[in-house]
């Protein structure tokens, strides 16, 4: 076995704990750096967990986009707190949305950013976080949304909060079972799949199947734009917006700030 393969196997073995206990990344950028007015907002999740975020008003508009974030990030994005060599910054997204006539609510999910700790500090890959999504919609009764797993689960568990949703943009929703299956197969060790699944359950109480958004997806009845890395291993072609020129998953979260026409074209179609 090569040294690189050994490192990958070691990384896969650590991944259940890595996914279950997210690192809190610092907030490194603020809206006023981009000329945006904003208000600090605080509201409770459905189970009382305190959530913190920003409201960016667009005074000429009644339209609102609610922005959720992916695991390990926060409302601003992610720096290098986890040892990575890249930055994802959502501030240009918010600037594009504001300038196009949208109010923006962005906030930190539980156990991320400045929001409260809950559920023993573990993540449910959308299961617990769905309560935060529903609460963010409750904070303002009419919204479009950017998000994926947590929003999909919330739509199924709390449909009463989604009656005014017009559309959704979902960059790279994730199914842990599919990821673990693809990685173990790629490494020639599919027998490790059951072991990793059991390790995940022992850490956060969920098997990969329990954390999958797939059973909840039927509750998403509004227009949804999916974005995914085309060259990423394990994916099959679907009818969605493919992102070319990279194999790195996190480049997918940097795509919309650099290509706002994809985001704005979709939102304008269904919200204006």
List its salient traits.
Alpha/beta-hydrolase, globular, Rossmann fold, 272 residues, alpha/beta, two-stranded antiparallel sheet, single chain, AB_hydrolase_fold
Can you give a write-up of this model?
This is Alpha/beta-hydrolase. It comes from Linderina pennispora. It is a single chain. It contains 8 helices and 10 strands. It is α/β, with parallel strands linked by helices and 272 residues long. The chain has a single domain, classed as Alpha/Beta hydrolase fold, catalytic domain (Rossmann fold, 3-Layer(aba) Sandwich), CATH 3.40.50.1820. The strands form 2 sheets. Strands 1-2-6-3-7-8-9-10 form an 8-stranded mixed β-sheet, with helices on both faces. A two-stranded antiparallel sheet has the order 4-5. The chain starts with a helix and ends with a helix. The model is unreliable at 142-146 and 233-239 (pLDDT under 50).
